[in-house]
Specification:
The protein is α/β, with parallel strands linked by helices. The chain has one domain: Rossmann fold (3-Layer(aba) Sandwich). Helices cover 32% and strands 24% of the residues. The protein has 7 helices and 11 strands. α1 runs antiparallel to α5, α2 packs across α3 and α5 runs antiparallel to α6. The radius of gyration is 17 Å and the shape is globular. The N and C termini lie close together (9 Å).
C-alpha cells in the first residue's frame, strides 16, 4: 500500500482547521486516506516513523516562534518541543517536508535563523519572485518567475543562514521560500490557500492582532486585489515528487 502523507495542524478553531485540511487535499490531489491529519493543538504528536510516511506537510498557525517564552501557552510550548524533535530528525534524514508559513518558524528555529518582526506582512497578496535556485527547483519548475501569493504573518526570518538555499523572495519579505538539503522546504506565503480560504481565516482571526478592528474591509479588499492561482501547484509538485 502507498505510504500516506501527514499534515501537522495547529488551528484550534474547527472551521478554518477543517477548511485548511480540505484545501491541502484539493491542491495536493490526495484522497483523505492518503493525507493523515494530526491536530497538535488538541493532541500530543504521535510517534512519526519517517520510513512509514511519504512526506510531511505543516499548515499555518496562530503560534509565533518569536513570542516571549512566558507569553506562550502550555499547548504552544508542547507543540514547539514536539516540532523541534521532529524537525531535527527530518533535517538529519533529509526527509520530504514542506512547512507553510509556520514551517518557517519551525525550520528556521532549527537553523538558528533570526526570527522577528522585521519583515512581518499584513494579510494581503504580494508578488513573489523566484531566485535562480528557485527557477530550477523541482517544486517550482511549473511556476512563473513572478507570481502573486497570499501572506499574513507577524514574524519572518530576517537573515537566512548559509546552510539553507533561498528559493523565493519579495520586496516586503526577503525570505519567502527556502530549502534545506534536497528535500526539506518552508514557505512564508501560503500555497494551500485560495480566496475563500483566506477570507475564512480573516474572519476567524479578526481579534488576533493581524489588523486593527476597523481594518476588516481593507483587509478583505487587500486579498482580492489580484487572483492567486499558481501557488497551489507547489503542493501538487511536492506530492508528485515524493509519492510512492
Amino acid at each position: 500500500m502507498d505510504r500516506p502523507f501527514v499534515l501537522l495542524a495547529t488551528r484550534a478553531e474547527d472551521l478554518p482547521a477543517d477548511e485548511e485540511y480540505a484545501l491541502f487535499l484539493r491542491f495536493t490531489g490526495l484522497p483523505p486516506e492518503r493525507l493523515r491529519r494530526i491536530r497538535l493543538e488538541r493532541d500530543p504528536m504521535p510517534e512519526i516513523d519517517l520510513d512509514e510516511v511519504a512526506g510531511i506537510l505543516v499548515g499555518g498557525s496562530p503560534f509565533n516562534a518569536s513570542d516571549p517564552w512566558e507569553k506562550k501557552s502550555a499547548v504552544q510550548r508542547r507543540v514547539e518541543a514536539e516540532m523541534a524533535e521532529l524537525v531535527d530528525r527530518v533535517v538529519a534524514r533529509d526527509a520530504p517536508f514542506l512547512g507553510a508559513c509556520y514551517g518557517v518558524g519551525t525550520l528556521g528555529t532549527h537553523l538558528g535563523a533570526p526570527i522577528d518582526g522585521t519583515y512581518a506582512e499584513p494579510i494581503s497578496v504580494v508578488d513573489v519572485t523566484l531566485t535562480e535556485a528557485g527557477r530550477v527547483d523541482p517544486l517550482l519548475g511549473r511556476l512563473p518567475d513572478r507570481f502573486p501569493a497570499f501572506v499574513g504573518h507577524k514574524e519572518a526570518i530576517s537573515r537566512l543562514p548559509a546552510t539553507a538555499t533561498l528559493l523565493a523572495s519579495s520586496p516586503t519579505c526577503p525570505v519567502q521560500m527556502f530549502r534545506v538539503g534536497r528535500n526539506v522546504y518552508a514557505t512564508q506565503f501560503h500555497p494551500e490557500l485560495d480566496l475563500a480560504g483566506i477570507v475564512t481565516r480573516i474572519h476567524a482571526y479578526a481579534s488576533y492582532g493581524y489588523f486593527a478592528p476597523d481594518e476588516l474591509d481593507l483587509t478583505l479588499a487587500a486579498v482580492r486585489r489580484t487572483p492567486v492561482t499558481a501557488t497551489g501547484g507547489i503542493l501538487r509538485a511536492f506530492v508528485e515528487r515524493y509519492a510512492d
